[in-house]
Amino acid sequence: MECQLSVWSDPEDLSLFMNYLAHMVCSNDSPASMLGNFIADFVKGNVEGRFPREVVEGIRHHRKADCFTDSHAVFGASRRLISSSRRRYAGVIIDVLYDHFLTISWDRYCSTGLDEFVGKVYENLGSHRISVPPPVPMVIEKMVREDWLRRYGTVEGIDRTFRRISGRLRRENTLNTAVEELERNYVLLQDHFHCFFPQLMARFRTREQDVARVLPGR
To answer: In the list 3, 131, 143, 155, which could disulfide-bond 148, CB 3.0-4.6 Å?
Structure first.
């Protein structure tokens, strides 16, 4: 049985919340796997037969990774650091912040350079010929045009990301200033990430050379 996750009811809003970079790193690098990992939050329920096999496997892979993350003690500890005024969006905030720490410590976890990897992601997602839910082509086009995956590497880029998310939500929120959470707990959140991410990679990353980088004794 697949792990069932609660999802946002508005796919337009959801398209801006996903921790894209970590999910792309944990895919198996094929265009279909990347696409499946990318669209997983846009589709609900049983996906068997709705997409090609490798895309379905990518969707399931993403869902399992989300279940692992949401139930992990370290991720939970990071969520509890978020101030009460933003607690409703704590998971979203930590997803974005963990992608920041992944970006700035990229060579520690990935054997392919960041620019090369991001270019491959954009190429793979932009060249697919598979029927996908309506928001997805718009999100891919916007992500490539605005270069979202390289934006996580600076505090200014994280600030712009949170402001973009805040502006797309219909509900009044304080995410436009959520970069304060990074500034307030930078070192502790960074420690949390480096404790958590090697475990995520060991379970979900399929490239042995990258797993070996974080688990030398493997």
So the answer is: 143
* Per-residue model confidence as pLDDT tens digits over 164-216: 888 888 888 999 999 999 999 999 999 999 999 999 999 988 654 444 444 44
Asked whether residue 118 is assigned to any structural domain, the reply reads: yes
Q: How many domains does the chain have?
A: 1
Q: CA 72 to CA 194: how far, in whole Å?
A: 13
**Residue 151: domain span:** 11-205
Are 213 and 111 within 8 A, CB to CB?
yes
Residue 56 lies in a domain: yes
Q: Is residue 187 part of a domain?
A: yes
Query: Is residue 2 in a domain?
Result: no
**Residue 53 CB coordination number (10 Å):** 11
Q: Is 133 buried (19+), middle (13-18) or exposed (0-12) by CB count in 10 A?
A: middle
- Give the C-alpha distances (Å, rounded to integers) separating 137 from 15, 39, 141, 167: 11, 10, 6, 20
